[in-house]
Amino acid sequence: MQICRTTRIKNRMNIMHLNKLVITFSLMALSACSSIPIMVPDMAMQSAKPPTLESARGPLSAQQSKKILARIKKDGVETSIFDKHLALIGEVVGSPLIVGNKVDLLIDGPSTYAAMLSAIDNAKDHINMETFIFEDDEIGHEFAMRLMAKQRSGVQVNLIYDSVGSISTPKEFFATLKESGINVLEFNPINPANVRKEWSPNERDHRKLLIVDGKTAFVGGINISSVYSKGSFSGSNSKSQKKSAKTDANQSELAGIPWRDTHLKLAGPVVAEFQKLFIDTWQQQKGDPLAAKDYLPALTNQGNEVVRAIGSTPDEP
Predict the structure, then answer these.
(1) How far apart are CA 92 and CA 44, in angstroms?
(2) What are the start-end ranges of the E strands in 91-229?
(3) pLDDT of 220 strictly over 70
(4) Could you tell me if 210 and 254 lie in one domain?
(5) Which end of the chain is more exposed for a tag (fewer CB within 10 A), N or C?
């Protein structure tokens, strides 16, 4: 079955949680139907090798991998869907399944922001943040103040924000961050004078990624904006919603509806994979050289979750 979309959606995360032991993260790129390959049924199963898992120490043996996968499947209904999923994803992306991770579900904005700000406050070496929207509002200012405080304390902060997603945020806001020493990178600038590479206007960075000390990662659907600052069942007072209400009287009825999304906090060996995605984006965007920090520290097992981190970029076909 082909999936058709009229607009390109980049870096979307797809999560599958099987028997509470496997979580697979996909930052998927979908574009027009013409760019989606035609998949022959069971094509992955025709030539796929048995999936191999990795730990903090490297690849597991085929026997160890088989044992873990069997444990994951034993309580489920007898089906080949799981095998086909692993085979297809493995063939397409090549990123490993990694064992030994701890994953916490953050149900809405308040729980996500509390966890992220706590991690920022406790950072010792560096903070890498990548976000589509970084608004100049109450939540944006709270994050900015915490990030600048850590930068002044000697923790290197590196920030990637999307030029279109954060188009309503004044340039002075990011200039203040830069003045504090934070390394700030604008993803695919819409100002022609600042363009660093060829790109299409709809090639945007929709990731919402925070990595602290190379040991803790946050990923999901929540941007840095007051639109997410209320709980799942309370209203929102974001600047963006207020603007919408002014332009369309009918939107005033929506002003009290919360914007709920979900985020995840991860610890364990898979954090290195998310760190590599951030560093790769920074380099592809030709950002200033990153300060010498311990971006890929030695990691140990933190839990029982098996995670695959799948990254894409908006310029992929």
Answers:
(1) 9
(2) 97-106, 126-131, 156-162, 183-187, 209-212, 216-220
(3) yes
(4) yes
(5) N
Q: Which domain holds residue 265?
A: 104-303
Which of 313 and 20 is assigned the larger pLDDT? 313
For 188-200, write each residue's pLDDT tens digit: 998 767 776 676 7
What's the domain count of the chain?
2
Domain boundary among 52, 74, 100: 100
Q: Give the H/E segment covering residue 54.
A: strand 53-55
Rounded distance, CA 32 to CA 41, Å? Answer: 21
Evaluated on CA atoms 17, 22, 25, 26, the torsion sign reads negative
Q: Which CATH number belongs to the domain containing residue 158 in this structure?
A: 3.30.870.10
Asked if residue 309 is part of any domain, the answer here is no
* Same-domain check for residues 170 and 96: no
Verify that 108 and 96 share a domain, yes or no.
no
Are both 284 and 216 inside the same structural domain? yes
| pLDDT reported for residue 51 | 73
| Per-residue model confidence as pLDDT tens digits over 163-218 | 999 999 999 999 999 999 999 999 999 876 777 667 677 889 999 999 999 999 99
Residue after which a domain boundary falls, among 100, 134, 161: 100
> Considering all CA atoms of the chain, what is the largest pairwise distance in Å, rounded to the nearest integer?
63
pTM, two decimals, is 0.74
289 and 277 housed in the same domain: yes
Amino acid residing at 188: N
Lowest-confidence pick of 19-33, 120-134, 167-181? 19-33
CA angle 220, 307, 222 (to 5 degrees): 5
Report whether pLDDT(244) > 50.
no
Distance CA 182, CA 147 (A): 8
Distances (CA, A) of 311 to 25, 127, 134, 195, 256: 9, 19, 21, 23, 35
Residue with tokens 């904005």: 109
Integer-rounded Cα radius of gyration of the chain: 20
* Residue predicted with more confidence, 89 or 287: 287
